[in-house]
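Deliverable D2.4 — example input (structure tokens):
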């Protein structure tokens, strides 16, 4: 339950950031209509930030569905989905760090705290599940 809850909360938070920072523009260049002379922020990531927020939310939703279907579809290998969630959260943390650790309205640190806890819980769940399956 903890993995599901944390992943869904982080997905909702990232989706909400598109409305907080980009007035709901979830796709396309959010800085295309800057006033003359204004400089957009640097883009160290492969896509605009608003698109990455949406993709982050969708990715977490897909991983939560996969997490719940994994025991039926993957059987004893279902722990791999926990590792995928762990890797996804780590990638989000690294991307945030690469972008300069922004913290609009305190949500950057909130999201990273959620993701750190998600990494720890997913690691524990993957280890416990893999170990139980090895003994079975």
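Example output (designed residues):
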């Amino acid at each position: 339950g903890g993995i599901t809850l944390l992943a869904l909360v982080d997905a909702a938070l990232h989706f909400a950031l598109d409305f907080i920072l980009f007035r709901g523009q979830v796709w396309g260049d959010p800085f295309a209509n800057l006033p003359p002379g204004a400089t957009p922020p640097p883009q160290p990531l492969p896509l605009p930030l608003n698109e990455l927020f949406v993709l982050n939310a969708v990715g977490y939703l897909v991983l939560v569905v996969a997490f719940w279907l994994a025991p039926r579809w993957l059987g004893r290998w279902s722990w791999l989905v926990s590792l995928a969630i762990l890797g996804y959260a780590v990638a989000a943390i690294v991307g945030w760090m690469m972008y300069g650790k922004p913290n609009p309205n305190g949500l950057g640190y909130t999201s990273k705290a959620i993701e750190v806890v998600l990494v720890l819980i997913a690691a524990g769940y993957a280890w416990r599940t893999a170990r139980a399956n090895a003994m079975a």
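The chain is about 70% helix and 0% strand.
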